[in-house]
Design goal:
By secondary structure, the chain is an alpha+beta fold. It has helices spanning 15-34, 66-70, 157-183, 223-227, 232-242, and strands at residues 3-10, 38-46, 51-59, 75-81, 92-102, 116-121, 137-142, 147-151, 202-205, 210-213, 218-221. The longest helix has 27 residues, at 157-183.
């Protein structure tokens, strides 16, 4: 699938978790741009130092399989380092959760219009200030599931409604796939989990300059370079595991 919805949420750890969430979001954006993919932020909630949440659409105009390359990123990411605000030099552990959801066609997910609650608001810029006098931003609540998605990326209300609906369909599709796996007896943990420190797929250990993926047991060094968007070593490692 050449389009995905990326969702990054700060987990346990306060401001440090928000900072880490922003670093992960930037890593995915820079990686996407290096591949000449489109990275469009649909909605975000900032904490002042980073992101509480960020939802973006990533698409490859050339038709490449974005989902297959990024699907392994779903889960809880854990960071261990000394925050800049820590005076005693103590290492803190914080988390951020990531979800990679495939964009699906409207015909693949049936949505009853009466199940939707659609509201509009003014789009905002950095710091939450309004940058548009017209209510072009759209927020959609899917009442049966409780899923809420907002989009303020487009200049028109119609464009934002279409973006938000695409994200709603992606979330519902992911939910349906999970329910189907449960029915088949292939129960797996939800992509995002609770964001707790004990739930992790990957640890970014700054004191040792080491990234460890706990699912495949692989380790990489040079954290800063990877967080700057050089994700190729991680992606290639997972591709190698799949081809075994």
């Amino acid at each position: 699938m050449n389009k995905v919805i990326l969702e990054v949420r700060a987990g346990a750890g306060g401001d440090e978790a928000s900072i880490f969430a922003a670093e992960l979001a930037r890593m995915y954006r820079v990686f996407a741009e290096s591949r000449k993919w489109k990275f469009l932020v649909l909605d975000s909630s900032e904490s002042g130092v980073g992101y509480k949440t960020l939802i973006a659409e990533i698409a490859d105009p050339a038709g490449g399989d974005v989902y297959n390359l990024l699907k392994q990123e779903s889960g809880v990411h854990r960071v261990q380092r000394v925050p800049v605000t820590e005076r005693s030099g103590r290492v803190h552990t914080s988390t951020a959760s990531v979800a990679i959801m495939p964009m699906v066609e409207a015909r693949e997910v049936e949505i009853n219009p009466s199940d939707l609650e659609i509201s509009t608001f003014r789009s905002s810029g950095p710091g939450g200030q309004n940058v548009n006098k017209v209510e072009t931003a759209v927020r959609i609540l899917h009442k049966p599931s409780g899923i809420v998605v907002a989009s303020q990326a487009e200049r028109s209300q119609l464009g934002n409604k279409e973006r938000a609906m695409s994200a709603i369909r992606a979330k519902l599709y992911e939910q349906q796939q999970l329910e189907e796996q449960v029915r088949l007896g292939k129960i797996r943990r939800d992509q995002i989990g609770t964001g707790d420190r004990s739930e992790k797929i990957r640890t970014y250990n700054f004191p040792d300059d080491r990234i460890t993926d706990h699912r495949i047991g692989k380790k990489w060094h040079n954290i800063e370079k990877i967080l700057e968007g050089d994700m190729e070593p991680i992606i290639k490692a997972f591709q190698k595991e799949e081809n075994k």
